[in-house]
Amino acid sequence: MYMYKENMSLQRKNYLSKRRKNKTLITVCRIGIVLVLFAAWEIAADIGAIDTFITSKPSRMVQTAISLFKTGDLLRHIGVTCLETVVGFLIGTVTGTLTAILLWSSKTLASILEPYLIVLNSLPKIALGPIFIIWIGSGKTAIIVMALTISLIVTVLEVYTAFSCVSEEKIKLIRCFGGSKLDVLLKVVLPSNVPAIVNALKVNVGLSWVGVIVGEFLVSKEGLGYLIVYGSQVFQLDLVMTSTLILAMCATAMYQCVAIAEKRLIKQSNYL
Q1: pTM above 0.85, yes or no
Q2: Please, what is the Cα angle at 132 between 145 and 123, to 5 degrees?
Q3: Quick one: which of 254, 243, 164, 162 has its CA closest to 204?
Q4: Contact indicator for 265, 194 with CB cutoff of 8 Å
Q5: Angle at 39 between CA 37 and CA 44, to 5 degrees
Q6: Secondary element (H or E) of residue 122
Q7: Closest Cα partner for 208 from 244, 243, 247?
Q8: DSSP 3-state assignment of 180?
Q9: What average pLDDT values come out for the chain (272 residues) when binned by 10 residues?
C-alpha cells in the first residue's frame, strides 16, 4: 500500500513537471515569434527591403513611444482610451446579462423582442456613430455609447441563447422541491452558464475596443484612436504604428484580465 502511494506520488510529480515544461515551452515560443517578427521587420527596414515611410520600423516606434512618454501624452492618451473601453465594456456586459435574464424569465417578452434583436444585431452599428454624435454630442459619452451599442446586443443574444439551453430536467427537479423561478435562476441557470457568460465577456473585450476606437476616429481629440487618425493625416506613420501596437497591447492585457476572472469564476461555480 505504501509503495502504491509512493508510485502515485511520483507519477503526479512527473505529470506536473511535464505540464510546467509544456507551459514554459509555449510561453517561450510565443515570445520568440514576436521577437523574430520584430527583428525581421527591423532588418528589412535597414536593408531597404521595405519603405520605412509607409511601414515605419520597431526602433523608430520605440523612439516615438519614449518621446510621447516624456511629454506626458502617452499615459494620457492610453488612460482616456482604456477608461472609455472599460466603462463601455462593464455597462454592456452587465446590461446585456440583465436583459438576457429578463428575456429568459418571460417567454412572451422574448418572442416579442426577438425580431428586433435580430434586426439590431444585423445593423452595422458603426453607421450609427454620426447619429450618436448629433444626439449626445462630441464627448466621451458618445464614444462610450458607441462601444455599448456594439457589445450590448451580442451579449443579450449569446447569454439568452445559453440560458434557453439549460436542461429542463434540472429545472423540473428544482420545481418539484418547491423552488421558485428565482431559485431556478440562481441555483441552475446562472451556475451552469458561467462559461457562456465568460465567453460573452471575451467577445465584449474586442467589441468594446472596436466601438471606442471608431468613436475616437470620429470625434475625439485624445486617445489612441485620435493618435492613429492624427498620425495618418500628417503622414507620421511612426505615430500610427506605435499607437496601433500600444492598442494591441492594451487589448491583450484586458483580455488576460478576463481570462484570469474566468478561471476564478469557473472554480467558484464548480465549488458551488
Answers
A1: no
A2: 80
A3: 254
A4: yes
A5: 95
A6: helix 107-122
A7: 247
A8: coil
A9: 53 76 87 92 88 85 90 89 90 89 87 85 77 78 85 86 79 74 78 81 86 84 88 87 91 87 70 52
C-alpha grid cell, residue 169: 430536467
Q: How far is 162 from 166, CA to CA, in rounded Å?
A: 7
Do the Cβ atoms of 103 and 109 come closer than 8 Å?
Answer: yes
Q: Cα torsion at 253, 254, 258, 260 (round to 10°)?
A: 30
In whole angstroms, give the CA distance from residue 151 to residue 209. 10
DSSP helix, strand, coil percent of the chain (3-state; round to 5): 90, 0, 10
What angle do the packed helices 73-105 and 194-218 form, to 10 degrees? Answer: 130
> Three-state SS for 261?
helix
Site of grid cell 428575456? 103
Cβ contact 253:265 at 8 Å = no
Report CA-CA distances (Å) from 249 to 19, 39, 203, 229, 244.
Answer: 27, 18, 17, 18, 9
CA 108 from centre of chain:
32
